[in-house]
Predict the 3D structure of the following.
Amino acid sequence: MGLKEFYPPIEPYESGRLDAGDGNEIYWEVCGNPAGKPAVFLHGGPGGGLLPGFRRFFDPEAYRIVLFDQRNCGASRPSAGDPRVSLERNTTPHLVADIERLREHLSIDRWLVFGGSWGSTLALSYAQAHPGRVTELVLRGIYLVRPSDESWSFTPTGAARLFPAEWAAFRDAIPAAERHDLITAYGRRIGDPDPAVHIPAARAWMGWEFSANTLLPVDPPELGDADILTFARITHHYISNGGFLPEEGLLAGIDRIRRIPAVIVSGRYDMKTPPDQAWDLHQAWPEAEFHIVEDAGHGGSEPGIRHRLIDATDRFRP
């Protein structure tokens, strides 16, 4: 039996912007079957925004597929691409509240929650806050945002050893005297109001972010200055604040979601969110179905990852 392919491209039949308070408007869209089983897709990043391909993980005949741009990114407003826009009210609890507000706005009782990378973090956070509203969880590239996970990404002894040229470019964009704390050094520059300072810093930051996304190298996306600043500002904002997660972390809340059917998928060679995070989640939650894809990295579109994710949504169809 061959690998499952993406469902054909599909366009939304409904979209809008939801007033989330404090001047925030959340862009949302719905595609698939209006009478189908509700499912919500949580994109990664944070700050990555939606791509049309995200709609294709679900059978459009069976699912009412809900997607949205998280606060201050994509088509949501105001955009973090404007350096004057404050991110003070962009935290994980705010995003969880936005998901629940969108569910109520669309008159959905319960829905399948699908999230990869940062989307898995947000999916676990939402499910633990509102377990009665989640029918199933489909999770990929588990990101627990623990200090050890951040150490892997931002110190010379982690992913840097596998991507030395990319790490050197990231490190060397900061003066030697400040390299002992690269996250803080980048924060000063990404937050600088001068485009001559924040745009090069944002591009260097995102260059490192994009360097380890797939098992085999792919060209990074071509993003304009506003998009690259949006992505860099929001990603840095969350990383420098521990993902705005409870001090005890996400694993401590597994008992609240233990009875929810779940599928956990990780690439064996995931260099962004190494599979020990998925393994640790599974050890805390052995009832969840667990898959290591032997020939894959981090990307949700890699064939083996794609297969496992679509297999999960197919099996959870009505």
Observations:
- The domain at 14-146+244-315 is CATH 3.40.50.1820 (Rossmann fold).
- The longest helix spans residues 195-210.
- The radius of gyration is 19 Å.
- Strands lie at 14-21, 24-32, 37-42, 63-68, 111-116, 134-140, 262-267, 289-293.
